[in-house]
From TrEMBL:
<dbReference type="InterPro" id="IPR050271">
    <property type="entry name" value="UDP-glycosyltransferase"/>
</dbReference>
<keyword id="KW-0732">Signal</keyword>
<protein>
    <recommendedName>
        <fullName>UDP-glucuronosyltransferase</fullName>
        <ecNumber>2.4.1.17</ecNumber>
    </recommendedName>
</protein>
<dbReference type="InterPro" id="IPR002213">
    <property type="entry name" value="UDP_glucos_trans"/>
</dbReference>
<keyword id="KW-0472">Membrane</keyword>
<dbReference type="InterPro" id="IPR035595">
    <property type="entry name" value="UDP_glycos_trans_CS"/>
</dbReference>
<keyword id="KW-0328">Glycosyltransferase</keyword>
<feature type="signal peptide">
    <location>
        <begin position="1"/>
        <end position="17"/>
    </location>
</feature>
<keyword id="KW-1133">Transmembrane helix</keyword>
<dbReference type="GO" id="GO:0015020">
    <property type="term" value="F:glucuronosyltransferase activity"/>
</dbReference>
<comment type="similarity">
    <text>Belongs to the UDP-glycosyltransferase family.</text>
</comment>
<dbReference type="Pfam" id="PF00201">
    <property type="entry name" value="UDPGT"/>
</dbReference>
<keyword id="KW-0808">Transferase</keyword>
<dbReference type="GO" id="GO:0016020">
    <property type="term" value="C:membrane"/>
</dbReference>
<keyword id="KW-0812">Transmembrane</keyword>
<feature type="transmembrane region" description="Helical">
    <location>
        <begin position="466"/>
        <end position="489"/>
    </location>
</feature>
Length: 493
């Protein structure tokens, strides 16, 4: 048996290869999610080139990694948060599409015109594989295809966005697969109707971004069309996991790797260690608005409500904020940066206050920490609804918070054992996987490097129009046959 395994390894080994990661508007959380995958590939001897918008990694200086930094629309994120709080507070999803329509062309032009990217393209630099991400805009896909024959897309959500699902022939029935809505199965008629409209609107909106094809044609000779690249993806790695993702249809090359960034907590050091140890038996609460939303984006009344609620708590509150906050109660400590997983994995933690980003919630599940969340935009609403439906936390409205509501919610989640028990139970499910998400991601990256003849995943529906796909012709065929037999029988009589 051992001899057979050794022979198979010799027949088709995965030799070290050249891989390029292509991102444009990547938030810090996106880079933190990709970092373990990049570091593992480096450890396995692969040569990595990382194109991103100035979010450094701790291994960016190693010999077998090259980083190309890009300044892409530095006001993108700040404009997004302003739109959410000033114009789209009741319906944040259009804010992202509205902002992206205005920025897609400028983002694409800046990205492709970058000296480092142009150097790779003009010198016909070739990689064995490209791994591309996007923040709605899709320019990185074309650059990825110009640099490598095979492209893997990383989707940072717990479900695959519908345009990419359709490209990979993943069935996404509107009847039970939620498309950026808060509906869960079983859906009522009006919910299915709304779900279908949102999905259609989302798909049509993505076609608007194909206008960046003109920019690519002017900057790059023989650039492929964005839709052509999307339809020829080799695989999709997405942020799905066994707890926060509902059961939905999948295809062989759509791979859930949610939680690949989760790890065991390390010992705290310095001021944080002293602060946590001083919290005593009451423990501490960790509060973070994520890597996109800053404290200054939240109106002053809401910030004061948080401080008022915190002042009534027995627990120490560690608030991660890049900005100083006036009038802090004695039990509240502001830190500009915090090792989030080391705090979530500490035995003295009692609660995680979060905006509901997927990666933070996955870390909370992994480390068995109950949650009180207040979503701000995009998938955060659905993420927190899923967690609250499971009974592992509470979801509040960020735009209608009061000190009493914040305090009562925190007190309830900390003191009712069912929330902690839920997280303990779900954490066991989250961790109990045949293969770790990180090793699963590495396997599929190296799979397409071993099988170089596989350019893209097979698309069994690529040749079907919508009439054939939904079998409308079949549905019409039977009554027509019946009608033909009926007419023929009548004439014979």
């Amino acid at each position: 048996m051992l001899l057979t395994i050794l022979l198979l390894a010799l027949i088709n080994p995965t030799t070290s290869g050249r891989i390029v990661f292509v991102t444009s508007v990547a938030t810090q959380s996106h880079v933190l999610f990709l970092s373990p995958l990049i570091e593992e590939l480096i450890e396995r001897g692969h040569q990595i080139t990382f194109i991103n918008n100035k979010h450094p990694m701790k291994k960016s200086i190693v010999d077998n990694m090259t980083t190309i930094h890009i300044d892409v629309n530095p006001q993108f994120i700040s404009n997004l948060t302003r739109l959410i709080f000033e114009e789209y507070r009741n319906d944040p999803f259009p804010a992202l599409l509205h902002l992206e329509r205005r920025n897609a062309i400028a983002t694409c032009r800046t990205f492709v015109a970058n000296d480092g990217v142009q150097h790779l393209i003009r010198n016909n630099t070739r990689f064995d594989l490209a791994i591309a991400t996007s923040f709605v805009e899709e320019c990185p896909f074309v650059v990825a295809k110009l640099l490598a024959p095979r492209v893997i897309y990383v989707n940072f959500m717990r479900h695959i966005l519908s345009p990419y699902a359709h490209a990979m022939s993943v069935p996404t029935p509107y009847s039970f697969v939620s498309h950026l809505t808060l509906f869960t199965s079983p859906m009522r008629l009006i919910q299915r109707f709304t779900n279908a409209v949102v999905s259609f609107y989302h798909s049509v909106s993505f076609r608007d971004f194909d206008s960046t094809d003109e920019i690519l044609e002017n900057l790059v000779h023989d650039a492929p069309r964005i839709r052509q690249v999307r339809d020829k993806l080799s695989a999709i790695l997405y942020g799905g996991d066994p707890v926060l993702s509902e059961a939905v249809p999948q295809m062989p090359y759509t791979v859930a790797v949610g939680g690949l960034h989760c790890r065991a907590a390390r010992a705290l050091v310095g001021e944080l260690k002293s602060l946590v140890e001083a919290s005593g038996e009451n423990g501490f609460i960790y509060f973070s608005l994520g890597t996109v939303l800053e404290t200054s984006s939240v109106n002053n009344a809401t910030v004061r409500a948080f401080l008022d609620a915190f002042s009534r708590l027995r627990q120490t509150v560690i608030w991660r904020s890049a900005e100083e906050i006036d009038g802090l109660p004695p039990n509240v400590k502001i830190v500009r940066w915090a090792p989030q997983q080391d705090l979530l994995g500490h035995p003295k933690i009692r609660l995680f206050l979060t905006q509901g980003g997927l990666f933070g919630l996955q870390e909370a599940v992994y480390h068995q920490v109950p949650v009180v969340g207040f979503p701000a935009f995009f998938d955060q609403f659905a993420n927190l609804k899923r967690l609250s439906d499971l009974g592992c936390g509470l979801r509040l409205d960020l735009f209608n918070l009061t000190a009493e509501l914040i305090h009562s919610s925190i007190d309830r989640v900390i003191n009712e054992p069912r929330f902690k028990a839920c997280m303990v139970k779900k954490s066991l499910v989250f961790r109990d996987q045949e293969q770790s998400p990180l090793h699963r991601a590495v396997y599929w990256v190296e799979y397409f490097m071993r099988h170089r003849q596989m350019i893209s995943a097979e698309n069994p529906t690529g040749h079907l129009n919508w009439i054939a796909y939904f079998c409308i012709d079949v549905v019409l065929f039977f009554p027509l046959c019946f009608l033909g037999v009926f007419i023929l029988a009548k004439r014979i009589k």
